[in-house]
Amino acid sequence: MKTDTIYKKAFNHALDLLEQVETGVELPTENQLAVQLEISRTTVRKVLRAFIARGLISAGLPKIKLHSTAAAWERYPDAETVQISAQVEKSFMEWILRDDPRPGTLINELELARKFGIATTIIREFLNRFQRFGLIEKRNNAGWIFRGFTKDFALELFEVREMYELRSAKFFAELQDSSPIWGDLGALRIAHVELLADIDRRFHDFSELDSRFHRLVSSASPNRFVDSFSDVISLVFHYHYQWRKHDERQRNEIAIHEHLAYIDALISRDINAIEAACRAHLRSARATLLRSTQD
Amino acid sequence: MKTDTIYKKAFNHALDLLEQVETGVELPTENQLAVQLEISRTTVRKVLRAFIARGLISAGLPKIKLHSTAAAWERYPDAETVQISAQVEKSFMEWILRDDPRPGTLINELELARKFGIATTIIREFLNRFQRFGLIEKRNNAGWIFRGFTKDFALELFEVREMYELRSAKFFAELQDSSPIWGDLGALRIAHVELLADIDRRFHDFSELDSRFHRLVSSASPNRFVDSFSDVISLVFHYHYQWRKHDERQRNEIAIHEHLAYIDALISRDINAIEAACRAHLRSARATLLRSTQD
DNA sequence: CTCCGGTTTTATATGTATAAGAAACACACC
DNA sequence: GGTGTGTTTCTTATACATATAAAACCGGAG
């Protein structure tokens, strides 16, 4: 059966909102809440019923916030607010990082399902979607093979990444002055500088910044195939950073400097400078990745 | 339950093989047949049992081909020899071609399942895999949207295709003289010439030749991401050719000439000539595709 | 006629069941 | 001891069931 993670997440979210209003105030309509919480009215009503049952709001109409005890404000744990299908990727990647299966290892749907404590359907669905990341391969009627986090994988990944990144960077430089994307780039530059200033403590925040930056660059000229490749890169880097922790701080510091050079080149709109900065960054990112491959 | 399409296909295949030997001849072992038919021994045995039941071969060991009536040689219809999951793509694309849904149309799993006469599980699995073709998009908890065979789609597709094709062509030109791929290219050239000679009758054979040629070019420098994109192109062209039939013969004739020029450029190994021929071909392919988009 | 909340319908997410097929095991024979 | 068939076990492909969530429908009020 479908899990009620959406409801639980909405419940927590609605509780946050409710906390911020005074006792006695009227609540927004169901439709308004549905829009605000980005869920259907059906679920909003379920949340409201729960609130009423807990004595947080009045039962009649219009609904009013009531004064209530602290216990009634109990939230659902975060783990219960994510859909199973979303958890699978995490479980799967963690399994790879932990068990470090050899390239060529057979992946068994049932075994994974048992290991992760979920139904095979979900595993299958996940594997089918995950296929595009190039780390697994399907053999008809005979299961899946883990291809491994190999040198080939890294090289092939970067070959495509370089094509895409250079393409996007060139489009970026041609953006109108009036484009709001320049503002986003400025904000991102500041975020980089701030992170750099506090690098010793916050170095693991870089992974997310990295992903944001590269997505911004490609957003200058949307292309569904390029965009979808960003997911591949994000995933690989997200987990890669966890894979090789030992010089993470230093690696990230270097990467931030490269990003800053790249950002400044973009701002200068000098095509040659952009290409140089972009290539320099990719070269060093590839070298880092290659160092942690499996073969 | 799982369908027995593998068995039926193997049955037909084995019947073809059996037909070619004389009555009284001993059959290969089960293991040998398994290798030859590319299936497991379990299924080979099922086929052999069926053959025995039909009086085609002897029951004891060693198994011998018997003389039997024409009726015993009945085959399973082709439609029953493909796995359901493989049929879905066909049904789905035909649905798109026939119903011509507007971009933005909601796709309903249950409705499709009923229309195609299969379980929703399979539709879901298909949609998940099909996502990468960029024609549909998933909205969480709210089904799928058909994005349409639009101008944007064609342009984005060709942008990536051009990057990939130029890259592969360059690698191709650097292939060692001794590489067997040159032989394949020669054979493909001949196939093109032959098709051209008989273009009036065989013009629909071009679609397959097109796909073979582009795959050969990219095989010079394997890259899983590039290769996987070939599937996208093949699919689009395969169905696109069916979409706009009216000047198909002429379009294909032109494309064959472009291919020949491209092949000759590859053989010459002249980078500039290759790039020119490649771009020329892609430009015309894109123009053709654009003419049949939806908006 | 637009928005509201009550009610009903439909669709998706996830679990479970099972036949078909693959793989492993076992024993015999040359 | 390798190869062959009989037998058993395990895995995948597919169908089906059901709870949750989304969407559609509806009558009433401002």
Concise synopsis of the structure shown:
The structure is a homodimer of 295-residue chains. With 295 residues, chain A is an all-alpha fold.
Task: Please characterize this protein's 3D structure.
- 2 copies of one chain form a homodimer.
- Chain A has helices at 5-19, 30-37, 41-53, 84-99, 109-116, 120-130, 151-173, 180-197, 199-202, 206-219, 224-243, 248-268, 271-291; strands spanning 106-107, 136-138, 144-146.
- The model of chain A has no long low-confidence stretch (mean pLDDT 90).
- Chain A has 3 domains: 2-81, Winged helix-like DNA-binding domain superfamily/Winged helix DNA-binding domain (Arc Repressor Mutant, subunit A, Orthogonal Bundle), CATH 1.10.10.10; 84-146, Arc Repressor Mutant, subunit A, CATH 1.10.10.10; 151-293, GntR ligand-binding domain-like (Four Helix Bundle (Hemerythrin (Met), subunit A), Up-down Bundle).
- In chain A, a hairpin with a 5-residue loop joins strand 2 (136-138) and strand 3 (144-146).
- Chain A starts with a helix and ends with a helix.
- The first copy, chain A, is globular.
- Helix content of chain A is 65%, strand content 3%.
- Chain A has a 3-stranded antiparallel sheet with strand order 1-3-2.
- In chain A, helix 1 (5-19) crosses helix 3 and helix 4 (84-99) crosses helix 6 (120-130).
- The first copy, chain A, has 295 residues and is mostly helical.
What is the domain total for the residues of chain A? Answer: 3
SSE order of chain A, as H and E? HHHHEHHEEHHHHHHH
Find the count of extended strands of chain A (DSSP E, 2+ residues): 3
CATH topology of the largest domain in chain A: Four Helix Bundle (Hemerythrin (Met), subunit A)
Measured distance between first and last alpha carbons of chain A: 42 Å
Strand content of chain A: under 5%
| CATH class identity of the largest domain in chain A | Mainly Alpha
- What structural class should be given to the helix and strand makeup of chain A? mainly alpha
Oligomer: homodimer
Helix content of chain A: 55-70%
Biggest beta sheet summary of chain A: 3 strands, antiparallel
What is the CATH-assigned architecture of the largest domain in chain A?
A: Up-down Bundle
Global morphology of chain A: globular
Q: Largest interface, and how many residues on either side? A: A-B, 28 and 28 residues
For the largest beta sheet of chain A, what order do the strands appear in spatially? Answer: 1-3-2
CATH superfamily of the largest domain in chain A: GntR ligand-binding domain-like
The overall pLDDT average of chain A reads 90
Low-pLDDT regions of chain A: none
The helix count of chain A comes to 13
Radius of gyration of chain A: 24 Å
